[in-house]
Amino acid sequence: xxxxxxxxxxxxxxxxxxxxxxxxxxxxxxxxxxxxxxxxxxxxxxxxxxxxxxxxxxxxxxxxxxxxxxxxxxxxxxxxxxxxxxxxxxxxxxxxxxxxxxxxxxxxxxxxxxxxxxxxxxxxxxxxxxxxxxxxxxxxxxxxxxxxxxxxxxxxxxxxxxxxxxxxxxxxxxxxxxxxxxxxxxxxxxxxxxxxxxxxxxxxxxxxxxxxxxxxxxxxxxxxxxxxxxxxxxxxxxxxxxxxxxxxxxxxxxxxxxxxxxxxxxxxxxxxxxxxxxxxxxxxxxxxxxxxxxxxxxxx
Length: 300
Prior knowledge:
about 20% strand; about 300 residues; about 45% helix; 10-stranded mixed sheet
């Protein structure tokens, strides 16, 4: 059974533009032709490819098919002469801290050299691999070591986190030291409902369970630092983001010698060529610039 790539292109256009009408304009065909192609694709695959909502969204099978389509398009681009190449869509999944610290500088060379449309999908480093598995992205930064079928992974190193607060916050809540009773009162900052780092840290060192301490939820690494500098919260923040503030005393490490270390891996399609291979090379090179730690993964 041969795949109908014109039909898959119609599905991709509908998802990308959010409507059948705009998809038809993008592909220079009628709206009826778009509907017919997707219907034929669903008949060929014997299952729905599209959830006809507003905006439309792919089914799980449709998402996987679109992932394959993106891989094929990426390979095809490598065969075309430079002057004939279309803009290449490069979709990558990453955790927020990597994006804030080093990923964009790592991609600078690739984005400057090629006609690329970058799409960054953000998620917790424990969940980004799901985006690669579904075909939504071509590469992912993940805390998982084992690659999924058809993909491979490289170890990038560790991000080390410290328990950070301002001097005034520390004096207000931890004047008698960082202890269980004080931590039950002091407001922490966590990223979202999937952020288990702070939970594991407090449970490991102080036997504090979820629900025994209060927290703010902020989905931004930079906002963690702002909350600390405003004296209204403390949190687990990567060393690389607060080194200068620790040196000047603007922020303090509440528990020197105790933190959290997270291993990171770069996962991508195994048959990488061209732009994706360049991304892999730049990601490796950029993370190699940072100190590598020998501490085991987890709380230390």
